[in-house]
Specification:
heterodimer; A: 765 residues; alpha+beta; Four Helix Bundle (Hemerythrin (Met), subunit A); 5 domains; 6-stranded mixed β-sheet; globular; B: 122 residues; alpha/beta; Rossmann fold; 5-stranded parallel β-sheet; 48% helix
Chain lengths: 765, 122
């Protein structure tokens, strides 16, 4: 197969993103199978993938994408409802496409899709629902066969009832159709006219946010916060509308404001139904914004919309569950009375929901002009160059200080060079930050994969699991994202497999049958915190202790002295795994120690708290970037080392009385605690004679553990650029990297986690 | 017609006050920043507020945001510089009713005040 590599790359990137999103959307769809926006979105994604694929003559891909697309089209037209069986087939289709993408990347011929799967999907496309039988997930061949056989047998028993509402006919008369009214010239005093361009650019931004929040309203877990955010946005919109005498805009904003107010109390089904009209309202606002840019206003006909929308919002839990048929029925009655079209431009065709959906899609596409794709290697180069620049800047700052201290040159010269150096300092910091930002990616890139993961696991394990994801928009460095992928998957699997109990057990324990896993991310200063919390069975400390003794990791006497938390932390120790039987879900020989190691690789920390019977919370803290580090420069013997500032608790000068030893291991008494002391000279293999005098103890911490590192001298704080060391560099002691100092020399960076494992193994010896 | 004038510069306050006096508005209370204004606004109960943008302690935008949480009706005119113009939308979103760019003539200020009050009355 010969394809233009550049074109192929573009296709793989763009469609790959669509594909990842498909997974998420399909799982969401399972929860609200009649959400028209979502159905449209999924349909469009498949349609886009199919379109590009056919352009490149990828027949096998087109085949499966087409089949899935037609199945979705049937769902979109309410011919079938997407149930479990249909969902399994659709997810399988996505899996097939993913395999084909892998083939493309590996320059192989595309895997042909299973004919039965294609047929089963096509059958759905023709309005025959798939059987909702319990089928094992991911055994594609076996499952699609049953599915393919079944529709023929089952189809007649399920009449395609909603089809009666003529799915193809556009719902022209829907009260929620705002059409496209003709523009009228905008009349404003010149002082306000002057601000119009600022308003329009602000509107673009605000409306994008409004759109996001409206979409978030659809997710129960985010509804409250989305409603609050939306209320703030609409309040601002109303004020802008009033200032610019744009009455329709104010009215639409008020409608959305009403929605924000009502949303938290709306029944789930009503909420799902309100989303589509809300999106139409947002769309109308976008039209308003465009019109304003052209110094015109649009007078959207809002009466019927407002009436119907308010009726919807007034629904209470009791009445919020009308049969789905009532929706098309309502549309039919309203379409009987011609809509009071304000202008000829509001012709029926222009008002079909399909069209407005396309329009709303066109918007992000227009926004795409603001982004360009850049090869990662170029960004790496840029970051490296900035790193070099920081080093040179540090040297210059050092020289400037020297000039000041030694009073070199004239007073004026010294002032100038200080100013110049200060300016460079500032610009470099800004530049560093800006370049770093280009490498930031939202955690959603990772989080987006988990709804599918958890859904499949839940089905496989016969558990009910609700996954709540928060803060997916939090951005971290690309390299961090890459390193986090595996550990997070492992932790999520753990929570689902070992954490959440089967429904019967949960019920017996007085918990809701549906278990919850909450995955959240947030900024904490220069760090990002990721929390995985489940309400499962928690960690049984006695079982951990037993296993640890069995495996010879600890003695009974040692366990007796350990706190509950310390015992729980044993699961992070190498070679520890409690899984009673190895399941193919989470017991894959990769233990929590690997998870910890991966996280420590990106200078992160992992901590765990668990209450037996109530659940486990795992907290991961990772730095925003791995390339630059605030460090304390210390002297050990004749050499200078960098210690990550975040790991330093305090620096003390222990008196001889404070220092002693327990079973040959050096310790230090600090206030009312005793902590192990490590000699820098010894660790970093300084020549004999250089080791002796080490007056300072740098107290390092890792979670609740502490250790003292003896150093010869303290030099000062510095931003250091981390240069990775070759894997083979292992002889110089526990170091994680190197950096270039202000004076141009090279220093090694102390590997704090390694120090702690050294201290631990010594304590145990 | 009571006006609250918020500006950190005494000179600017005096200039604006004299302009207001020329226009026939004689009841003018002064505040030197957003915080000062917040402490005075309830007791004074002005009919109109003229507020500078850049001020120490609490700037005009923050003042408007805070003030609007307790009072949605009293009109606020933001006094800005040409360079702040691009940010006026922010102020509008926070609840400002009109704006005037420094330096302004008595005519211009009068026009803006009338515009604002007329709209408010409507």
């Amino acid at each position: 197969m010969q394809l233009d590599p550049e074109l192929l790359q573009d296709f793989l990137t763009e469609s790959g993103e669509l594909l990842d999103q498909l997974d998420v959307d399909l799982v969401t769809l399972e929860g609200s199978p009649e959400d028209p926006e979502l159905l449209n979105k999924i349909f469009r994604a498949l349609h886009t993938i199919k379109g590009s694929a056919s352009f490149m003559a990828l027949t096998n891909l087109v085949k499966i994408a087409h089949a899935a697309e037609s199945a979705l089209n049937a769902a979109r037209n309410r011919v079938v409802v997407v149930g479990r069986g249909e969902m399994d087939l659709l997810l399988q289709a996505v899996d097939v496409i993913k395999t084909q993408f892998d083939d493309l990347r590996a320059a192989r011929d595309l895997t042909a899709p299973d004919e039965n799967l294609v047929l089963a999907l096509a059958a759905i496309g023709e309005g025959k629902p798939a059987p909702s039988v319990q089928v094992p997930v991911r055994s594609a061949a076996a499952e699609s066969k049953t599915a393919a056989d079944a529709p023929a047998a089952k189809a007649p028993s399920v009449p395609a009832q909603p089809a009666a509402a003529s799915p193809a006919a556009p719902a022209t008369g829907s009260p929620f159709d705002l059409g496209s009214p003709a523009p009228a010239p905008l009349k404003l005093p010149s002082s306000k006219m002057d601000l119009l361009e600022f308003l329009v650019s602000d509107l673009d931004d605000s409306l994008r946010q409004v759109e996001q929040q409206v979409a978030r309203l659809g997710e129960a877990a985010q509804r409250q916060s989305a409603a609050e955010a939306l209320a703030d946005l609409t309040e601002a919109l109303k004020r802008s509308a009033e200032f610019f005498d744009c009455e329709p805009m104010g009215k639409i904003a008020t409608l959305l404001d009403d929605l924000a107010e009502a949303a938290p109390k709306l029944p789930e089904r009503t909420m799902a139904r309100a989303l589509s009209p809300a999106m139409s309202a947002v769309e109308a606002l976008k039209q308003q914004s465009k019109a304003l840019a052209a110094k015109t206003t649009l007078n959207h006909p809002l009466e019927r919309f407002t009436e119907a929308f308010h009726a919807l919002l007034a629904e209470t839990a009791a009445m919020g569950t009308p049969a789905p048929e009532s929706i098309p029925a309502g549309e039919q009655t309203t379409s009987a009375s011609p809509s009071p079209a304000p202008s000829p431009s509001a012709a029926p065709a222009a008002m079909s929901p399909g069209k407005s959906a396309e329009k709303s899609e066109a918007h992000p596409a227009a926004g795409a002009d603001h982004t360009i794709r850049v090869e990662v290697t170029r960004l790496e180069t840029l970051l490296n160059l900035v790193g070099e620049l920081v080093l040179q800047k540090n040297r210059l700052s050092a020289l400037t200080r020297q000039i000041g201290q030694q009073q070199l040159g004239t007073q004026e010269f010294r002032e100038h060079i200080t100013t110049a150096s200060g300016g460079l300092d500032r610009v470099t910091s800004d530049l560093q930050l800006a370049v770093m930002r280009t490498r930031m990616q939202p955690l959603d890139k990772l989080f987006g994969k988990y709804p599918r993961l958890i859904r499949d696991l839940a089905r496989k394990l016969n558990k009910q699991i609700n996954l709540v994801i928060e803060g997916g928009e939090t951005e971290v460095d690309k390299s961090v994202i890459e390193e986090l992928g595996d550990p997070l998957v492992h932790l999520m699997r753990n929570s689902a497999d070992h954490g959440i109990e089967p429904p019967e057990q949960r019920q017996a324990a007085g918990k809701p049958e549906m278990g919850t896993i909450r995955l959240s991310a947030s900024h904490k200063g220069s760090h990002v915190q990721i929390v995985i919390q489940d309400d499962g069975r928690g960690i049984d400390k006695d079982r951990i202790a037993r296993k640890a003794i069995e495996k010879g990791l600890y003695t009974e006497a040692q366990i007796a002295t350990m706190s509950e938390k310390e015992i729980q932390r044993i699961i992070f120790a190498a070679g520890f795994s409690t899984a009673e039987q190895i399941s193919d879900v989470s017991g894959r020989g990769v233990g929590m120690d690997v998870v910890r190691a991966n996280i420590e690789k990106v200078k992160g920390t992992i901590d765990l708290t668990s209450v037996h019977g109530q659940g486990t919370t795992i907290t991961i803290t990772i730095p925003l970037t791995v390339a630059i580090l605030s460090a304390m420069m210390v002297g050990i013997g004749p050499e200078t080392y960098a210690i990550p500032l975040g790991s330093i608790l305090e620096i003390v000068r222990p008196t001889p009385e404070q220092r002693s030893s327990i079973r040959q291991a050096a310790v230090m008494r600090l206030r009312d605690t005793v902590l192990p002391l490590l000699s820098g000279g010894e660790l970093f293999a300084q020549p004999e004679g250089m080791k002796a005098d080490a007056p300072f103890a740098v107290v390092l911490h890792q979670q609740d553990q502490r250790v003292g590192l003896l150093v010869t001298s303290l030099i000062g704080q510095q931003e250091v650029v981390i240069k990775p060391l070759d894997e083979s560099v292992d002889k110089g002691g526990p170091v994680s990297g190197a950096t270039v100092r202000e004076d141009g020399g090279v220093s090694l960076i102390v590997d704090v986690p390694r120090l702690f494992s050294i201290a631990q193994s010594r304590a145990r010896a | 017609m009571k006006i609250l004038l918020i500006d950190d510069s005494r000179t600017m306050r005096n200039i604006q006050k004299s302009v207001l006096t020329q226009l026939g508005y004689t009841q003018v209370e002064e505040a030197c920043d957003g915080q000062d204004a917040l402490s005075k606004v309830n007791a004074y109960a002005p009919d109109l507020i003229l507020c500078d943008w850049n001020m120490p302690n609490m700037d005009g935008l923050t003042f408007v945001k805070t003030f609007r949480t307790q009072n949605k009706t009293v009109p606020v005119i933001m006094v800005t510089t040409e360079s702040e113009k691009s940010r006026v939308i922010e102020a509008i979103k926070a609840g400002v009713n009109n704006y005037v760019i420094k330096p302004f003539t008595p005519d211009l200020l009068s026009q803006r005040i009338n515009e604002t009050l007329t709209k408010k009355a409507a």
